[in-house]
Write the structure tokens for this entry.
Amino acid sequence: MARKQGSHSDITGPKVRAAALRLIARHGYAAVSMRQIAAEVGIQAGALYNYTPDKQTLLFDLMHGHMVDLLGAVEAADFDGTALAQLEAFTRFHIQFHLPRADQVFVSYMELRNLSDENFATVEAKRREYENALERILRVGEVEGTFHIPDPRITTMAIIAMLTGISNWYRAGGRLETDKIEAIYWDMVRRSVTA
């Protein structure tokens, strides 16, 4: 098969990552072959290695890229004011960032077990950076006397798990608009940390 017209690394590379993301989210990392990814993109299996050295690297690139995007977005976000205001801003940020990225969220949480030890450590360090942003808010709230929580680390993990879980059930066009979902989740988060 001849090289497809328009098959350049800046065009085909993102197509490879998008196809891998879709297939892994749908079938799981172990069930997806490089040949399937190549077929989805419309290139020969051997040509796939022009864009990634192997499937492990492709998975790592997807997960690491998601975390880099998340950390960049959280760094640019406006979490000012009291701890309560910061927590609300974080809650809404998390929902708004993750809802349109259901496949990335699924792969980032469900496929951690398939990363090599070195890749796992790198992705886990990025996840920890994100978790620390929320934990700092909770600790400020404790100092202010606004939040009453038994353990800031466990509370951090519980809140993130609750907020991330929206990606499992949310579907665009459902009965609730996203602003209503945000309000409901913010109320649950607020109640979980205040007396």
